[in-house]
Amino acid sequence: xxxxxxxxxxxxxxxxxxxxxxxxxxxxxxxxxxxxxxxxxxxxxxxxxxxxxxxxxxxxxxxxxxxxxxxxxxxxxxxxxxxxxxxxxxxxxxxxxxxxxxxxxxxxxxxxxxxxxxxxxxxxxxxxxxxxxxxxxxxxxxxxxxxxxxxxxxxxxxxxxxxxxxxxxxxxxxxxx
Length: 177
Known about the structure:
It is a single chain. The protein is of the alpha+beta class. It has 6 helices and 8 strands, in the order βαββαβαβαββαβα. It has helices at 20-30, 52-67, 78-87, 112-117, 143-146, 165-174, and strands at residues 2-7, 33-38, 43-47, 73-77, 98-105, 126-130, 133-139, 160-164. The chain has a 4-stranded antiparallel beta sheet, sandwiched between helices. A 4-stranded antiparallel beta sheet has the order 6-7-5-8. The N and C termini lie close together (11 Å).
């Protein structure tokens, strides 16, 4: 089965730095096949027959040995990525007029209650839930009014990993040969 592993909080700002070549080697050394990384933000695509939870544990343990600290890893199958990206309206883009992001949810936050608990001003962004993710679209002129940036300080922020819509769509494509 084809999977994408999404590492939370790597290679952004002052976060933990994980070179993608090292990540690719680590995933290959665990025994996963057809490994490829995408961008420098902790996205790795590979094949495995193991269950997702076992894959997540293997990657987290190996990363902890390599980096010296725990990095949360969320694994999504190609069908899960398809479900999420196909739920996002095609007209939602990242361009000069709008911003669209996907928050992939760890098990503890994967429910509709997460959607209503976020500290955003609902009149500005269109925020939706689908199993495995939240996604939102907001006009760039209303981004600051939306208070989407307050998600960073929310207790559930640690239970998600966010990618822009372009990355989300590309990850879905890359997991479908």
